[in-house]
Amino acid sequence: MLINYSGATQANAGALLEIDLGAIVANWQTLGRLHPTGATAAVLKADAYGLGASAVAPALHAAGCRHFFVAHLGEALAIRPLVPGAMLAELNGLLAGTEGDYIEADLTPVLGSLAEIDLWREAARMAGRRLPAILHIDTGMHRLGLDAAGVAALAAAPERLDGIYIRYLMTHLVASEAPDDPINALQATRFSALCAKLPPAPRSIANSSGIFLGEAFSSDLARPGAALYGINPIPGRPNPMRQTVRLCARVLAVRDIEPGERVGYNGIWTAQRRSRIATASIGYADGFLRSQSNRGSAIFDGRAVPLVGRVSMDLTTFDATDHPGIIPGAWLDLIGPGRTPDDVAEAAGTNGYEILTSLGARFARAYR
Ligand SMILES: *Cc1c(COP(=O)(O)O)cnc(C)c1O
């Protein structure tokens, strides 16, 4: 099935993005098996890390997933009809004035401050019924969440939670992909101590990498995002997740250039020999990051093709000298078998998360 967001079709698109929903579901099931102490949610923020929440949400819901997280209220409202009956929580916290939207759409806010708790308690009083929430506890990230003083204030005045049904007490790990970082154990210890001061409720700790940290990080609800989409949750070790994305770009033109000629904006690559340059229809406006200039590569026929010169807005050039099969109309794999999002990230000087969430809107998208 080809879903068309940009006017692109398989026939006219410069690049094709194929998303394997079966692999995403299989990854969710794998993570669930690795987290036997509780349920396993799916994090769908940023349009399911760029892969399309409107396709990913129903696939996971059909597979039995009943806990979903997004970052923004708007994201939650968009997928609410796709995940009937499931918990749908919104990580960035409750903005004053939006309480009615949460109640109407049966959304669960992740409350990260006393002010947000006060807003939600008041909303519950006005609604005349208990409202669900997740309480976010800051154990070291220092972005959102109640700090130790906030937890102490709640413990001293438990009536501030009147009318709030705490679905989960949640914390978020700072460096779960680095198992040797002592912050992991410190966060687990702090979380237990802070939870002990609050009314008993189920707990939620691990993101993708946290699931691999061992028992102290198991809880009633894991919250993986990246690993669902195939990013390696255990960097430096073999990736246990299935790849979910294939991105290929069409070759528009191939030309021969003489030694000493330079390629692309500012000529940052110089041919050392007579070279065949293939120009593909993808660029940084498609989220194909410019920091890959002179560093990235594509795959053709199972072999790497070096990216040469600057990535420009709509075009990227490759050294096809050793690949006579690359002719106009050929397709180069930029992500796919032999080249993972993590590989692309390494060339671009970032992480796989940014590679996926940057994926652009001009592709022809196909969901399998
Ligand atoms: C994004 C996010 C997650 C998912 O993290 P991954 O590393 O992608 O698995 C889980 N919890 C919170 C609070 C998040 O912001």
Protein described:
The protein is of the alpha/beta class. The chain has ten helices and 20 strands. The radius of gyration is 24 Å and the shape is elongated. The termini are close together. The structure holds pyridoxal-5'-phosphate. Pyridoxal-5'-phosphate binds at residues 43, 45, 91, 172, 207-208, 223-227.
Brief overview:
The chain has 368 residues and is an alpha/beta fold. The protein is built from 10 helices and 20 strands.
Q: Which characteristics define this entry?
A:
10 helices; alpha/beta; 23% strand; 20 strands; binds pyridoxal-5'-phosphate; single chain; 25% helix; 368 residues
Largest sheet: 7 strands, mixed
- How big a fraction of the residues is strand? 15-25%
Instruction: Name the bound molecules.
Output: pyridoxal-5'-phosphate
Number of strands: 20
Order of helices and strands: EEHEEHHEHEHEHEHEHEEEEEEEEEEHHE
Mean pLDDT: 96
- Percent of residues in helices comes to 25-40%
Number of helices: 10
Ends distance: 7 Å
- Rounded Rg: 24 Å
